[in-house]
Amino acid sequence: MSSAIRALMLMVALLAGASLAIKCPPEDTLAEGGPRRVILDLDGGGDDAWALVMLLSNEAEYNICVQAVTCSHGNARVSDVLVNVLRILDSLDRLDVPVYVGASEPLITPGPNRNTSHYFWGNNGFGDVAFDSPFAVDSLVSLHAVEAMNELFEKYPNKITLLAVGPLTNVALLYKMYPETRDKIGDLYILGGNRHGVGNTALAAEFNFFRDPEAAHIVLNNSPKIVRVFPWETVLLQTFTTRWRFETFKHTTNPAVELLNQVEYVVYAQEEIWTPCDMYVAAIFLNSSILRTVKTYRAEVELTGWVTRGMMAILHHVKDSSQHNVAVIDEIDTEEVQRMLVALNLK
């Protein structure tokens, strides 16, 4: 972590004093109809922002609360990821949501080479847009993301769902540093991996697994519960046209969507298909009725292949469901997701 980020954390800690109040109730009230708690672990691209907006804009409707946002390297440097998250929170006047900085690099460094095609969201994750206003720092908490996750899962055992929509470095570190905490995660949803060998990098892997294959391997092989995986191939089946995206959100009263318009007018200027990948995981957590086809498998992550490193391999011959570790989401109700997206205009 850079000295600038450390200094920023110290400044916020001194200014904020005690922990910020958040909309998640401080005590466990789930049995009395309290909200479902969720932690969003992200890597700061525009699709991560859509996931965050989807969650925050629907807390009341779906009775959930965002317990925390944890930042990882991936689409951008973790310092830029932090800035992007804070911009979204600030735009929605939701600086009550704590933000924690996590892993700045893969478990084994150096990470894979990133050529120009791997910077789809620009160098800073937000299309390198020059915004007019500075970002706020009120939500930043001076505690490492992995420590924060451990504390929260210990405090609310099996009551917090973890949505991991970036490289899985933070989650893998949590498993290795606090192995007893694995059993206290309510559910784990991942945006990442691939089930037919279709990648979105220069090789055969999906980006999040490609950025830290060892982390993905650790998480899939050490999670006590079935991991719900939304793979790249399913993203390709649920896409929207950029024309629809720009026409739908051209006039919006949602300030976070206005911010994302600035980002995506740059990023998607030459693209025909809009792929808000991470948003799908948020939508599924909010509204499980959109699930259509889900099947469990035994999956492993390739660590040594020259072309396939980071690829999620499905072991179809493993029929014993007790050995299955992933539930692969193959199909969702795209029309319902579209309705949820359009509704963000009025949030």
Automatic annotation (TrEMBL):
InterPro entries: Inosine/uridine_hydrolase_dom, IUN_hydrolase, Ribo_hydro-like. Keywords: Signal. The keyword Signal applies. One of its GO terms (molecular function) is hydrolase activity, hydrolyzing N-glycosyl compounds. Residues 38-337 form the Inosine/uridine-preferring nucleoside hydrolase domain. The keyword Heme does not apply. Residues 1-21 form the signal peptide. CDD domains: nuc_hydro_CeIAG (cd02649). It comes from the Eukaryota. Belongs to the IUNH family. This is AGAP001183-PA. It comes from Anopheles gambiae.
